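Late entry, evening session. Most of the bench is empty. Finally got around to the prediction I had been postponing all week. Sequence below, unchanged from the version circulated by S.P.
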Amino acid sequence: MSTATNVEATAVNTIEWLATGSATIVVPVYQRQYRWDIGGCERLLSDVRAVAAEDDAHRHFIGSILSARDTGTAGDLILIDGQQRLTTLMLLIAALHHAVKDRDPQLAADLQRVLVQHDQPSRTKLRPHDAWADLYESVVLDRRSDAERESRFDDNYAFFRSQVHADEAPAIWRGLQKLEHVSITLGAAANAQQIFESLNSTGEPLRDHELIHNYILMGLTHAEQLDVEARFWLPIEQHTGEMIGAFWRHYLVMTTGREVTASGEHGVYSAFRQSFPRVDLEHLQADAATWRHYAEIYATLLDPSLESDAEIARQLRYVNTFGRAAYPLVLSAYSDHVRGRVDRDELIETLERIQALYLRRTLVNLPNERLIARLCRARAQGRDSLTRAFARITPSDERVSAVLKYSELPHAAYVLGRLEGVEDPSEFDVEHIVPSAPGDAWSGDGDRSWKEFSEDEQNSHRALTPTLGNLTLLEPALTERVFGASYPVKRTEAYSRSAVPATRELESTTRWGTAEIAQRTVRLTSELLRIWARPSLPEIDDDGLTPILDAIRRRGWPAGWEREFDYVEYRGERWEVYDVKHLFNRVLRRAWTDARESALRYSAQHGGPIYDEMAWKGHWDELDGSHFLYMGWDSNYMMSTVQGVLEESGMAAEVFVKYSYIGNVM
């Protein structure tokens, strides 16, 4: 058997690999910038803590690290793949080193051997390329000055410093020493780019539901895996089909009451791991039975014909008109109905209110995104709370009536079907009584033709053609018979013969123009407001305010972040706060006054952002003489902290953000 001559791959202990040898690990200039955020750091630290708690036989594999010898230097390693993981690992080790250097000289020395060159203690073992090498070294070597700009290195180092306490250092070090990777070293004749692409770009990356599948089965024995697969996972797949990824996202929105993004780096999987940190067999049996229960319901939402109650099935079809965004709330209500916790009328009431919410907001041109998590939270507080939540975000009768006069009717077949009592509107055409593009010979009364209309008259008619009063349902055969015909011909040859009562009523109207459209709009609007009713409560329209718990957590600092908000509403006060940094500082300082115990409790549970000393260099704000707020976090962490502190204090329901135009398009 021949052997590979240009690639050497060896399974190694990561810490020993870093600590031994004198070679500098150099990040080449073509590598992308370091981009791991606090979420990635949190997962790494969690993995290190988990393996530290296991017996000595356990190890944690962090993947492969690809490097090549630099022929132009004295044996330096050029890092081709693995920069993100190694850099983050070094930041964790640096934070650990700085936490113990004054308390445990032996452990500090062991950590320093990993971080710096043996013969040059002022140079780090890992060397990013020159664009940000000085920033990295200033953090790792703890020589950062306040004048230096903040970076991802600062953000992630600060996170590790806040999470790793000196008394936990031996356990973290034990976990670090259990990390392993495959070290792949290329020979001089190896094609580095081809090997890099083979490691990173071939095959499909794992999707969120595949990661969830692996996560729940990974720690089980083979027999346990087979059992869980057969009894739980396969039924979940069968019920959800190609929508299994959406199912997990909707399920997590329902259970957490928080928005879960499907974009980015495995947001659904991350949310699942946070919700289910333990998936041993004892916990898994009960959890998986619950997941299977909701997957069965999800199948019915996707295909309402599976529901035996005709009215509930009809309402589910109606909800599907607006897509699947409301599924988290429907899952919750439907499950309670199946389990006998709510009666049929309450379920139908919820389904009707979902439709009213979406239709009315679409009519008045309000966004329909990021609404359902807040409704799931409200439902958890009871029926009255959910009713108030619907009322707050459902536009009023007055606003809807005003726009129906002149706006295009959305979801026309669905709306007309319910207004006109048609069971299946898909079997009918949406008929424009005044055509969208009338021909010169078209007439509304049989006397004056379209070409005789003034320009203003034509424009008035065109403006009203897509509105409620000018639309009705008509059988396709009748539509074809009178296509392009004038109104008197349509009235006698088609409308009078229709099986739709509302269409047949047009036979009694001898002419058709803007006045008739307006009259019919008024009549149908009254019926529309009755069918798609808003809860009759004095809740005010919230003008597009977003509850703080639904505010978007953005990665990094995207362009325009300084003008993300128009304003913030804090417990009835209007704050001129335009970005998350300002919001973070303002909320934490206010919480120090309004809810100090809650702020301290949250900070103790999460390792920050409030500390009793300025323990490392960076941007700090003083709360009082003995408490300090660290301000050097990334955007995602800051928003998470704002949400967490307000939720801990019970004030989250009273805080809203109003996104600016920039914030809406970011």
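Two things to note before I forget:
Residues 7-200 form one domain.
The mean pLDDT is 89.
Will write this up properly tomorrow.
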